[in-house]
Amino acid sequence: MKEPIQKVLRYMAIELALYAVLAIAYFCLVLRFLGPWLAELFHEQRTYYVVVSVLLMGGQAIALERLGTGLSYIIRRGKK
Prior knowledge:
Strand content: under 5%
């Protein structure tokens, strides 16, 4: 392979690994701290549960994307 393609694949693998670790950590934190409350909300008020779940998913997407971008920038040391 050409060297630029190898660099791109290496950076992509690093970003994918970081994103996977961050997503698992987020999932564990939400499950640990919000799990009982979400379960109660699911059984008591499903409409609010759906709204809260969608907001959590959106927040996760935004937060993990920004964290991943920031870490990617640090890994690449500002190089594009």
